[in-house]
Specification:
The protein is α+β, with helices and mostly antiparallel strands and about 325 residues long. It has 3 domains: about 90 residues, Immunoglobulin-like; about 70 residues, no CATH class; about 120 residues, Glutaredoxin (3-Layer(aba) Sandwich). It is built from 10 helices and 15 strands. The strands form 4 sheets. The protein has a 5-stranded mixed sheet. The longest helix has 16 residues. About 35% of the residues are buried.
Amino acid sequence: MKRIAYFLLLSLLLVSCGARSGYFKMEGRFLHMNQGELYIYSPDGGIDGLDTIKIEAGRFSYEKPCSKPSTLIIIFPNYSTQPIFAESGEAIEIKADASHLKEMEVEGTKDNELMTKFRKQIANASPPEELKYALAFINDHPESNVSAYLLNRYLIQTESPNYKQAAKLLPLLIKEQPDNTKLIHLQRQLSEIGTLSIGNKIPTFSTKDVNGKTINNSTFKGKNILIINTWATWSYESIEIQQALNNAVKANKIAALGICVDANPKEVKQTLERDDVVFPNVCDGKLLNTPLLRTFGLNTIPDNIVIRNGKVVERNITANTIRQRYGID
């Protein structure tokens, strides 16, 4: 009887200190943030949509089903973001000062602790120094999910991408993480990006927008600048780009085309109407398998290409760049 009671007590302690089997748990506390909300989404399918985390008395707790490793992105009230690496059956603790979020500490798993060290390392670094530290981390830790995130963040999803260097480093990560399907997806993405790189002409295409209207090359004839943007209702960063594009289109500065990877075209249409989005948007419910993404060498969220006079001139510009360049709020 005593032995049964001991195992019951041990089980309770393990559950209270960590996550249940098949779940991932986050707990945290903030200085200078007594109440508020955090938003969280996953760029690789770890969460369906956008979740809300409530902060009460400076603390929060969040638990989600988790069958395989995934990346979560926390959106803070000041709209900055930080990655968290989720693992099944694991729990982490977050400690942060709301006025110094770049120095946020995450304890509980190796990947999150490695990311914490990297975050502190780049807290006061210049952009070139950040890139240098990221490359060093990738070479030192090819077995870590953090390296996959950093490779995508600093070499692919940036306004100055270096696809050649990304393609060179990726086999090193795949060798150490042969079961990581996200890396295989990234490798395919790099090969598809190469089919429409900077300087290439926009390919011939034809599709229908959420209203059933045909959209093709002729739709944008005579437009000097066209920006094609991928987005999803669960990705705040991509929605922010959509909003900046919408304002620029309303001001007659550019033309734009949105490609949404949500599963429900009807709900996407309602979202576009609610937000008064005036430029055409496509959503066929095929998620990241929509053929239009491959046509334009786009394969992630968010992503975009800038086309000037029929040729690709830039990739992956941010909402801030759009606002500053076209003089909009």
